[in-house]
Amino acid sequence: MIDVIELFAGVGGFRVGLERQGDFNIVWGNQWEPSTKVQHAFDIYSKRFKDRGIHSNVDIAKVDEKKDIPKHDLLVGGFPCQDYSVARSLNGESGIQGKKGVLFWEIMRIVNHHKPKFVLLENVDRLLKSPSKQRGKDFAVMLASFRDAGYSVEWRVINAADYGFAQRRRRVFIFAYRNDTNYASRQLNSSLQESIHELGFFASEFPIEEVSLRHPASQDILPNDIVEVSDTFMANFRNAGIMRNGEFYTEEVIPRTIQPITLRDILTKAKDYQIVDEKYYVDDDKVGRNGKTTLEHFTYLKGAKRIERTSSTGHVYTYSEGGMNFPDDLDSPGRTMLTSEATKNRSTHVVEDLDTGRLRVLTPVECELLNDFPPNWTEGLTDRVRYFCMGNALVVGLVEKMGKKISEIYSLEKELQNISK
Questions:
Q1: Architecture of domain 263-392 in CATH?
Q2: Alpha helices in 259-293 (DSSP H)
């Protein structure tokens, strides 16, 4: 079994995916929501994984990596996109300090102490391009941090629907592996491009069709000084790439797609677990404060618009946005689910009920299935909190596929270790 710790665990998406694959033992998981007294996500996590490993519900910055966190071979977690700038520490050349409150530095604090063989992280894909005034700086700082800790890194932006899942959710996954592992030694036998296309971490479970000709590949070397990376470095990181010993190669790849699960499939499956309550239907009887019925309001939000606006400086401009399917196409996968799902906004899914033909929002069970969680995973929370938790969650099946690859890598590590003894 592979011992794992899970950071920023939410309701346990990484853990569900890894345990579904079978070879993983999650020994410690941390979930802390600083903005609320009631720890809804942790309550679900501790309920679903009761008596299995240690469940930590404290601010990760207050966790002692030496005393509180057990030994592990794999660290996983989804963390927010923040400002990863670093500066020279007060005592000069002897160290650096990152911006306070940036959770990535908590990850690196744990990585630098425990040195797990592997790290698997998830983030929004805009991480590769941020910040806008120094494009690619934040991700370059992350790569330099792993380089300095003795790791190589491979990354891939994955749209879950491209690989057969029910949601068009794009996220960047980052796989770091320690340079003294057998896996790292084997990767050195291939070029950086070969790792992306055939031999690397993502290639087998998330195959690619070809490389996009619209965006040129690039190769560069990160400055040795991470403060220089933070202050001046810029790069165009594409949706796939690899970094070894500070040298990185990145290119835009086109996935070899698999027919996705559709919204119709999700609604059909959910019928086995629920009766759709009247509260989920779009109400066209009452008029809201904006003078529109709920149906009229959704029709407006999802329609094409050209609106004249005035900026804070007095500049007059035209805001425009295209129309979107209304109701949502049941024969396509769902759109990216947000934490505001089921509220009256443009991003909310509105579907035609399979039985009644009436328009309604998705139920919490359907949102769980969109993320490939077991149905009723967040049962016991209010609907609003359930939607919020699923808007923050990842697509579990993607982690299951990655877990399969990590299991293969780890098995070979053990085999080669036994041979060398």
A1: Alpha-Beta Complex (3.90)
A2: 263-270
